[in-house]
Amino acid sequence: MKKTTLMMIASASMLFAAPAMDTTNMNMQGKGMKMMQNCKYKNSKMGHGMQGKKMMMQKKMAKKRMNSPFLIKHGLPHLTKMIMPYMNDPAFNLTSEQKYQLTKVRTTTMNAIMEAKPKVMALRKEIVNASAAGVSAKALKDKVAKLALLEAAATMTQLKCIESTKDILTKDQIFFLLTNKNKKMEHGKKKMMRGKNDQPKLMKMRGNQSMKCASGKCGQGMNK
Questions:
Q1: Any idea where the domains of the chain sit in the sequence?
Q2: 3-class secondary structure for 99-151?
C-alpha cells in the first residue's frame, strides 16, 4: 500500500514538474502564418491584375469589331474622329472653311453609317440564329450576299470619308495627325511597359510589407 502511494506521489510530481504548453506562442505563430498567406494572396492577385486589364482590353476590342458594320473591320483610319480633338488647336491650324467642310463630311458619313449599322447587325444575327437552328448554307446564300453588300456599302462610305478628308486637309495637317497618332501609340506602349516593369517592384514592396508584418506584430509574440 505504501509502495503504491509513493508511486502515485512520484507520478504527480513529474506531471507538475513538466513545462506547460505555451498556447500563446502557438496562437501568435498561427496568426503570423495567416497574415503572411494573406500578403502572398494579395501579391498574386496584383500580379494577375495587369493580365486582367490586358484581357479586358482585348475583349473590348473584339466586341467593337463584332459591332462594326464595315467589311474591313480594322486598318482603315477614322480620320474625322482623329481630327475632332484638334479642331481648335492652333498647331493644327484649320481655317473656318476647312472646319465647315470637315463637319459636313463627318455628318454625312455618320448619318450613312448609323442607317446601315442596324440593318447589318440584324441580318448578321438572323444568319447566325438560322445556322444554329439547322438551316442549310444554300438556304442562307441570299442573306449572306445581302449582308456582304450592306457591309461593302458601309466600307465604301468610310473610304469616301477618308478621301474627302484628305482632300480638305493640307499635307502639313495630315502629317500633324499622323505624328500625334504615333505619339499616342508610343505613349500607350510605354505605359504598358511601365506597368509590366513596375509589377515586380510592387510585388517586392508588398513582400517586404508582409515580412514587416510577420516580424513586427507576429514576431513579437514568437520572441516572447
A1: 76-169, 171-224
A2: HHHHHHHHHHHHHHHHHHHHHHHHHHHHHHHHHHCCCCHHHHHHHHHHHHHHH
C-alpha cell at 217: 506584430
Q: Which three three-digit cell numbers place residue 60?
A: 473590348
Q: pLDDT tens across 53-83, in order?
A: 667 666 665 566 678 999 998 889 989 999 9
| pTM attached to this predicted model | 0.59
- From the list 109, 111, 91, the residue with the least C-alpha distance to 101 is 109
Which residues, other chains included, contact 35 with Cβ-Cβ below 8 Å and sequence gap of 6+? 210, 213, 214, 217, 218
Express each pLDDT in 13-33 by its tens digit. Answer: 454 444 444 555 555 555 656
